[in-house]
Write a structure and sequence with these properties.
634 residues, 13 helices, globular, 41% helix
């Protein structure tokens, strides 16, 4: 597993100038006192996003359960409810925006409160009134929490600027600013899809209204119904089957009105409701808006970091086994109190073939700033020891930073945040055992060989356990049965937005099932054979960078050029630690890491083709499609 050993004290003379080229000598140290004041400026405990999300979720569920569902009648037909759709979309979006985008929350929460006050409060019963008043209170609480989080960021920025004794431009030349381009582009594409869905819905409503204006009203009697339609007999004796969203509202013998315009007909109480286009609008619009705002904020923060002189501070940093870089005060040589954490990537210009700055800031041709095969040390490998670094920018929760940091061999590198800065939560700091600390104090951390690793020269293989296979089989069964159950509806009704969303869900279930059923990692004399849900890959030993079990329960095999191999969602680390389990995927990462560090333990034989692993994704897809087709035309 990716446990990171704790650091040991390292003597770093505070008054000494930073040993980095092109870094100003007047750079001050971020002292523990200043860092502590910065940490205390974090948002108040009540402003944690969890409380806002829970408050809104509970009250919205209560309001939905308490809201009466008036039946559709000829006098009060149902029709498309665009304001209600907006209410639903804002409520769903706020569950994410409260946690990740307080900037959007400040706008969305008041808009949703106004819609709730207009739609739900008038003529509400006592239970519904109480529920919706609680929704308004939850929206107010979430708005206040978002405002507090943004105010905390301003306080942290001001404290960091006050602690810095100098301001300088970030070291250049820098790579082109790509930060935020992908989410911005994806957001614009999704918003275009949402606009198309809205246009389709509006066009459908207008077309329905034109037919209704020309239609003949016919009296009818309900003679039967099923889950999606009602059967009626008209006055002239014709039997008609009409689609209905609420067939349970029409009892046998009731007399609804039917509108007929040539071959077009529907119940007068149920105009076109645009449910499909509205679902498409929400499914594309909510993530599209979130991605667009996320990308624009990231670009703005990254551009502000490059625009002019920024605060500069000397700090200590170290990277853990999960790839997170932890920042400590410059005089916290024991590295016991992390101040902030984020993920960092290398800036491209000025790095040599191993991701380092050349002495004197010389540039070298390495356009992507990535580790090359056999290129030596990685840019910032996991280390138990803190390293000196110079931080450019005013740190704050969700902000952007640039570091000039040291490497093991004395070189230096420029790295920038690839994700937002986060404040470490209590209990989440990197921990280590005393044995690792002793090895580090003795002058280095030796790679330990797991006790479970038994080498005989023959190939080694790791795969799913009984629990993983059981869960995978259950997911595959659910996906195949779901495909069969809806295949006939797809054939008769055609492929619309709702069908597309359902197909995507089934494909996701099949991919997860294929991975859990038959993932496999096989080690032989040539390297690793990596079999996931859909394809088989080969990784030579000289290209293996790392093997780790991530905190979200996934497996990651590090490869050159950032093209890592991942298996997400294999386990639940918290439960595994609680019950003392050591699953096969955890043992695999430990033993593969040992094979990387100890070539003498690697297998001497090559593995045959059938033992390398067989991805089950294509087979499950064919099986699910065959079952669905057989059921559809049965």
């Amino acid at each position: 597993m990716s446990e990171t050993p704790a650091p040991v004290p390292v003597p770093i003379p505070a008054p000494a100038p930073p040993p980095f080229p092109s870094v100003p000598a007047d750079t001050g140290v971020w002292s523990s006192g200043d860092a502590a004041r910065w940490s205390r400026a974090r948002p108040a405990p009540w402003a944690r996003p969890l409380w806002s999300v829970l408050a809104l979720l509970i009250t919205v569920v209560w309001a939905i359960a308490a809201a009466p569902e008036p039946p559709c009648t000829d006098a009060v037909p149902c029709g498309a409810d665009w304001l209600g759709m907006t209410e639903t979309g804002l409520a769903a979006g706020l569950l994410y925006w409260l946690a990740r985008l307080p900037e959007v929350t400040l706008v969305a929460a008041p808009v949703l409160a106004a819609i709730v006050a207009r739609l739900e409060l008038p003529d509400a019963g006592p239970n519904s009134l109480a529920a919706n008043l609680c929704v308004l209170a939850a929206l107010g609480f979430g708005w206040a929490a978002a405002a507090e989080r943004l105010a905390s960021r301003r306080r942290q920025r001001d404290l960091a600027e006050a602690a810095a004794t100098a301001r300088h431009p970030v070291p250049g030349p820098l790579a082109p600013l790509w930060r935020g381009l992908i989410p911005t582009g994806a957001g614009l594409v999704l918003l275009a899809v949402a606009a198309f869905s809205a246009a389709e819905g509006i066009a459908g409503v207008h077309d329905d209204a034109r037919h209704a204006d020309r239609a003949v009203r016919t009296a009818a009697e309900v003679v039967g119904r099923d889950d999606e339609s009602v059967r009626v007999r008209t006055d002239d004796g014709r039997l008609l089957r009409l689609d209905s969203l609420s067939p349970e509202d029409y009892s046998k013998g009731s007399a609804p009105t039917v509108l007929e315009d040539g071959s077009w007909r529907r119940l007068a109480a149920e105009p076109y409701d645009a449910t499909g286009p509205q679902l498409g609008l929400l499914a594309a619009g909510l993530p599209g808006l979130s991605l667009l705002v996320t990308g624009l904020l990231a670009r703005r923060r990254a551009a502000a970091l490059r625009r002019g002189p920024v605060p500069v501070l000397r700090v200590l940093e170290r990277r853990d086994g999960d790839g997170l870089l932890w920042i400590y005060a410059g005089d916290d040589t024991s590295a016991r109190r992390p101040v902030l954490t984020a993920r960092f990537v290398a800036e491209a210009p000025g790095e040599d073939e191993r991701g380092r700055l050349r002495p004197g800031g010389e540039e070298a041709p390495n356009p992507r700033g990535r580790v090359r095969p056999g290129g030596g040390e990685e840019l910032n490998p996991a280390s138990p020891l803190p390293r000196e670094a110079v931080m450019f920018g005013a740190p704050r929760d969700g902000g952007e930073l640039l570091l000039v940091t040291t490497l093991r061999d004395g070189g230096s590198a420029v790295v920038r945040t690839s994700g937002p800065v986060r404040l470490p939560r209590p209990g989440r700091e990197p921990q280590a055992d005393p044995e690792t600390e002793a090895r580090a104090a003795a002058g280095g951390v030796a790679a330990a060989v797991p006790a479970t690793l038994i080498t005989t020269g023959r190939p080694l293989s790791w795969g799913p356990g009984h629990l993983g296979r059981s869960v995978g089989a259950a997911l595959a069964l659910v996906a195949i049965v779901g495909a069969a159950a809806n295949a006939r509806t797809l054939v008769t009704d055609g492929f619309g937005v709702k069908a597309a969303l359902y197909v995507l869900l089934l494909l996701s279930l099949l991919a997860t099932a294929a991975q859990l059923l038959n993932w496999r990692v096989t080690a032989d004399s040539s390297g690793l054979w990596l079999s996931g849900g859909w394809k088989l890959r080969h990784l030579p030993w000289e290209h293996l960078r790392s093997a780790r079990y991530t905190r979200d329960g996934g497996v990651e095999i590090g490869m050159p050029y950032g093209d890592d191999w991942r298996l997400p969602g294999l386990g639940m680390p918290m439960l595994e630690r609680r019950f003392g389990r050591n699953p096969s995927y955890v043992r695999m990462t430990e033993e593969v890491a040992a094979l990387r560090d100890h070539p003498e333990l690697r297998p001497a034989e090559a593995v045959s083709g059938r033992v390398r692993g067989v991805p089950l994704g294509p087979a499950l897809l064919v099986l699910g499609g065959a079952v669905a087709l057989a059921w559809a035309f049965h």
